[in-house]
């Protein structure tokens, strides 16, 4: 898990910690207190909070992508680029602009690869523009969309959710606004999605019992 506080104070440093706002359980998940309302339209909502600069998020991505592609029909998977401060604004803007342009599915993993495998600093405008061009995106169009009302609204929503979900580390995955797990609980990125399966099943049973 990458701690936001340490990243604000220094450089990119990853270390393990229990999820903030989550009541630690003698298990592999926590409880968010208070629970957050869901927007899944009646489906079980699975939300990942991430940051493009986070190496743990980069390692989780292939596992999450594979899981999401085969997710049950009663599950909706959402990604939220954490935005606790403007320190992560450029990366968050990149995510939501690519999403608005219909390119995030094609380029999401490539962003991680560029940053973590190729050493590309996408926070630098000229470097980012070259990377966008290389990947078939017009930098001028990108800049226009980045300033759009739609993207700015999504950035504001990301700020709000980062606060309301009490996110102070990434990656974190929340199920139905109640359960949370991460690589600290799971003891490694490869073990996270099996825990999410368990939490989805728990949420499903709770939904049936509530009817």
Describe the structure concisely for a colleague.
It contains nine helices and eight strands. With 211 residues, the protein is α+β, with helices and mostly antiparallel strands.
Explain this structure:
With 211 residues, the chain is of the alpha+beta class. It has one domain (2-206): 3-Layer(aba) Sandwich (Glutaredoxin), CATH 3.40.30.10. It contains nine helices and eight strands. It has helices spanning 4-9, 55-69, 89-100, 104-116, 125-134, 139-146, 149-164, 183-186, 192-210; strands spanning 2-3, 22-24, 30-32, 44-50, 75-81, 169-170, 172-175, 179-181. The strands form two sheets. It has a six-stranded mixed β-sheet with strand order 2-3-8-7-4-5, sandwiched between helices. A two-stranded antiparallel sheet has the order 1-6. β4 (44-50), α2 and β5 form a beta-alpha-beta unit. The longest helix has 19 residues, at 192-210. It is globular and about 55 Å long. InterPro entries: DSBA-like_thioredoxin_dom, DsbA/DsbL, Thiol_disulfide_DsbA, Thioredoxin-like_sf, Thioredoxin_CS, Thioredoxin_domain. Pfam families: DSBA. GO terms for molecular function: disulfide oxidoreductase activity. Residues 13-201 form the Thioredoxin domain.
